[in-house]
Design brief:
With 251 residues, the protein is of the alpha+beta class. The protein contains six helices and eleven strands. Helices cover 27% and strands 27% of the residues. The strands form three sheets. The chain has a five-stranded antiparallel beta sheet with strand order 6-7-8-5-9, covered by helices on one side. The chain has a three-stranded antiparallel beta sheet with strand order 1-2-3, with no helix packed on it.
Amino acid sequence: MAAVKFSAMPAGIAVRTSYARIGARRVALATNAFPSLLRRHRPYTVPVYDYALMTEPLTDEQLASVGWRNRQGFADSANQFHYVRLSADNRILWGGYDVVHHYRGRVRAEHDQRPATFVTLARHFFRTFPQLEGVRFGHAWGGAIDTCTRFSAFFDLSHDGRVAYAAGYTGLGVGATRFGAEVMLDLLEGARTERTALEMVRRKPTPFPPEPLRSVGIGITQWSLARADGHAGRRNLWLRTLDRLGLGFDS
């Protein structure tokens, strides 16, 4: 049941969904990659697509050849990084690298599958695990995540403190959304806590520019990050400028 609109009432907020109209004294918005119901927040996030593969279950011999004894999850340290996990039934989840932005930030089901990215991920997988050559992938998928210019969550209030908002997790929300929920509850209660005193809670990121500048800027940044990965991490003038402005992962 998706919320499509909300408005102020004398005693709270009216939220209209595709099925009903609901009244609440306070509202916590967590729309992630989808357009914010607060129009003024829409320039702060864009949806990008991330993709992953998962192997068939590994045999004991295959798992032993990898030497993955303690089942730690890990990621590499590149700008265009891969993340890797081992499932309970000994499948390797291999994701990341490509991050795809569609013009005007369109979120559509057909974007969830991208064969060209799956081919790239498979090639990188076997470069990392050459001893698993011949292993098949049982699953391949993708989905939209939201990102903001500082690549970490931001927060805000509206409607006289009756609506709280959190977004911009940039793919790091699985662990961080619990913290985000606690921040929103603090804000809705008007409580001053260690969480609400944080600069990341008090300040919002720089908004994205309108199209077509948005897509051009994202494209230049992705090209620059890939170039840095291919040149021992050396950052070009564009990335150094973003660093000085407090934009990106190094913000």
